[in-house]
Amino acid sequence: IANSVYYNAVLTLSILNKLCVTTEVFNLWFHLLQQVKKSGLRANFKREHDKKVCCLGLTSLLALPGEQFPGEALERVFKATLDLLVVYKDQVTVAANEEEVEDDDMDGFQTDDEEDANASDKEMGVDAEDEDEADNIRLQKLAAQAKAFRPTDDDDDDSDDDFSDDEELQSPIDEVDPFVFFVDTVKALQASDPIRFQNLTQTLDFHFQALANSVAQHAEQRRAEIEKEKMEKASAMAAPS
C-alpha cells in the first residue's frame, strides 16, 4: 500500500474507497508501524528500504487536498511520518558506522598479516590461487567465530541489523531522499493551504515540534550532501580518462 500511495495517492485512495476498506487498511498499516518487540525494536518494516517506502508513502498523503484527506487524518499521518523518519535515520546511521568499523578492521587485518603471509608464501612457494583460497578459509573461520559470540534472545532473535538492504538491489526510489521529500512536501502544503498547515502545526506538542525541527535540519544537511555528490560525479565524468 505504501508503494501505491507514493506513486499515486489519489488513485490509491479512490480504489480503497470504492472497495470500502480505506479505514481498515490504514488502521492495519498504522498498527504494523507502531508494533514493537520487548527490546523496543520495530516488529515490522525492519529493513531500511521498507522504512523508506513507508516514509515516502505517508509523506505523499500529506500532499492531498483537504476534501480528500481530513485534518484528523493529516495530523495522524504527519506524526507517524516524523516518528518513522527518526527511526529510519538512526538505522541508516548505525549501518554506516558499522560498515566503517568493518572496513577499518579489515584494513588492519590485512596490514598486520599480509607481510608475514607474503614472506611465508614466498618461502614455501605458494602461488596466488592458493593464497586466495587460504584467505577465503580464514575469512570463513572469522565469520563463524563472530557468529558464535553473537548474543541471542529467544523473543527478539532478529534485530534491524539482520535485515540490512541488498546493496545490489536497485529501485526507482533510490535517488529519492525521504527527508528532503518530506520537507518539500510540507513546504508545498504550507504554500498551497496556509490555514490547513497552521491548524496542523497547532496540534503538535513539544515532542513533535522537536522532531519536526530535527528532521528539517537533517533534510537540509542531506540536500547539501546530495548536491555535493552530484558535483563530484559530474567532475569525475568530465575529467579526461
TrEMBL record:
Residue ranges with Acidic residues bias: 97-118, 153-170
Biological-process GO terms, alphabetical: protein import into nucleus
Keyword terms: Cytoplasm, Protein transport, Transport
Biased composition annotated in UniProt, kind: Basic and acidic residues: 221-233
GO CC field: cytosol; nuclear envelope
Location (main, coarse): cytoplasm
Keyword Electron transport found: no
InterPro entries for the chain: ARM-like, ARM-type_fold
Residues covered by region (Disordered): 97-133, 145-170, 221-241
Cellular localisation: Cytoplasm
PANTHER family: D-IMPORTIN 7_RANBP7, IMPORTIN-7, 8, 11
The protein, known as: Importin beta-like SAD2
Record organism: Gossypium aridum (American cotton)
